[in-house]
Amino acid sequence: PRSDPTILLTRRASSLKEYSSHVSFPGGRPEDGDASVGATALREACEEILLDPGAVELAGCLPLHKTRKRNHAIFPVIGLASPAAAWQAAPAEVDEIFEFPFSALLDPDLPRQYADGERAGAWYWAGQEHDIWGVTALILKSLAALASCPAGAPASPSR
User: Fold this and answer.
1) What is the C-alpha radius of gyration for the chain, rounded to an integer number of angstroms?
2) Which of 18, 72, 90, 154 might form a disulfide with 67, Cβ 3.0–4.6 angstroms?
């Protein structure tokens, strides 16, 4: 909650076996001790970016999203970090943490699809310092649809 809100993103560690150096949200796979998807999201954010779970208010979830090639299911959890929240990259998992401006999220000209090449059909966020594409861009697109929806109206992101 700031005058200019942002969305927290990471660049995954280059040493990881899957999706190395890709831009992503903090998160990961559930463990047996996780009571809910929200608990998984908070635990993973603590592991990856040392974000105190007590500094986040869970607000809800987006619909299930799947990666294009490996068909991994992702259940995005939305949380609001308190003004006192702090984060720091856990080097084994994250090379960089950055903030994506909410104003860029709401700009309808920025989400685009690749026309050709290996990424053909995948979404990306144009004009950004970081290479935001694939399921991360698709999740941002879903969040943008939700954020730009009038109160009470259902959001339906296009795929």
Assistant:
1) 15
2) 72
Number of Cβ within a 10 Å radius of residue 41:
25
In order, the DSSP letters of 1-26 are: --SS-EEEEEEE-TT-SSSTT-EE-S
Q: Give SS3 for 37.
A: helix
Long-range (24+ apart) CB contacts under 8 A made by 110-115 are 111/137, 111/140, 111/141, 111/144
Token pair 């994250």 in the structure block, residue: 94
Instruction: Walk along the chain (159 residues) and give the pLDDT tens digit of each residue.
Output: 678 899 999 999 988 877 777 999 998 899 999 999 999 999 999 999 999 999 999 999 999 998 877 788 899 999 999 999 999 999 999 999 999 999 999 999 999 999 999 999 999 999 999 999 999 999 999 999 988 876 655 555 544
Tokens representing 41 are 């999201």
Tell me the residue length of the chain: 159
Cα–Cα dist 111/144, whole Å: 10
Residue 79 and residue 76: Cα distance in Å, rounded?
Answer: 10
- Specify the amino acid at residue 57: E
